[in-house]
Amino acid sequence: MAENEDGSEKTESASSKKLEDARNKGNLPRSKDLSSALLLVVAAVTIYGTGTLLVRDLSLLFNFNFLIERADLFDFSRMVFHLYESVVAMMDSMILMMSILAVAGIVGSIALGGLNFSWEPLTPKLSKMNPIAGLKRMFSVQSLVELLKSIAKVSLVGLIAVLVLNYFLPETLGLTFQSIQLAIAHGIDIIIWSFVFVTLALVLIAAIDVPFQVWSHKEKLKMTKQEVKDEFKQQEGDPLVRGRIRQMQRQAAMNRMMSDVPDADVIITNPTHFSVALKYDQTGGGSAPILLAKGGDVIALKIREVGNHYDVPVIQSPALARAVYHHTEIGDEIPEGLFKVVAQLLAYVYQLRNARTGAPRPEGMPNLDVPDEFQWDGS
């Protein structure tokens, strides 16, 4: 089980943020064995595919250099020209082969982990210059494992190479008795098959190393439970702070709502559990009354207190209060189905207001029948 520096166990898989941070720092799973195996496979295929071109160029090169005139050996300018001609003779086949191998090398290096650009590994770090830390890395368990892996890989590849050389030794010695063109073709054939056998060993090593590197990378990036909590706090914020912010937001919203209560035309109550404050702007062209404030229990009581303080009519109508409370949000117009009953209530409130100026007082509050679809059953 992976452990942190403080000894706590890393039991949690790396979060998406930690994986992204590791990628930005260039910390990705890589397999050198995969790159080497792919490079050799491509090299063998390339030599096999371009064998005819390679044999032709090598034959011309050997003929050109073995048939050099004796006088040219003592002429510097002739030897320079001879070297130039030799390079040109091999240029087309070598450029083709080197280009393919270069692409294979790049693909092999990014096959595991993908393409990634990061300047982080190039950033100078004083910790890397610490000799004590360097000695710890040299004699760590990870270094010992890497050493054993290297010895095992070299031993396996070396054994395969010795067996291949021993198998092809008679044919290799027989090349001296063949013509140049035939010897080159036969030699390339031996090289291809040698590549194949050595590559098989590296492919086997890569097949083991790739899953190991992926597993090792995941293990190194594992997190402790405390690290997961700390990262969550950094991303989402401290729960206590977030709770305090939400509380302040609710308080600010309630203060704004309470500041609108004095402008209400009427406050409808349950009378104890719900209170809603409505306003109808007769001059603003509004089509329906608007809900300025609503609340239950303590907030409902506070709405009634503010309404009484500012002499806003408070009407008890439990069914209508519940209907408006549950079917209307603050700042919205009341539903169309409540237009009639609210209009009856507002007409009654206006009559009460006009009665203060000497107008006849209404005989009684109208019967406020709330439609069945707006009745609240408490569920």
Automatic annotation (TrEMBL):
Origin superkingdom: Bacteria
Q: Which UniProt keywords apply?
A: Bacterial flagellum biogenesis, Bacterial flagellum protein export, Cell membrane, Cell projection, Cilium, Flagellum, Membrane, Protein transport, Transmembrane, Transmembrane helix, Transport
Reply yes or no: does the keyword Magnesium apply. no
Q: Name the InterPro entries for this protein.
A: FlhB, T3SS_substrate_exporter, T3SS_substrate_exporter_C
Membrane topology qualifier: Multi-pass membrane protein
Segments passing through the bilayer: 34-55, 94-119, 147-170, 190-215
Q: What does this protein do?
A: Required for formation of the rod structure in the basal body of the flagellar apparatus. Together with FliI and FliH, may constitute the export apparatus of flagellin.
Annotated protein name in UniProt? Flagellar biosynthetic protein FlhB
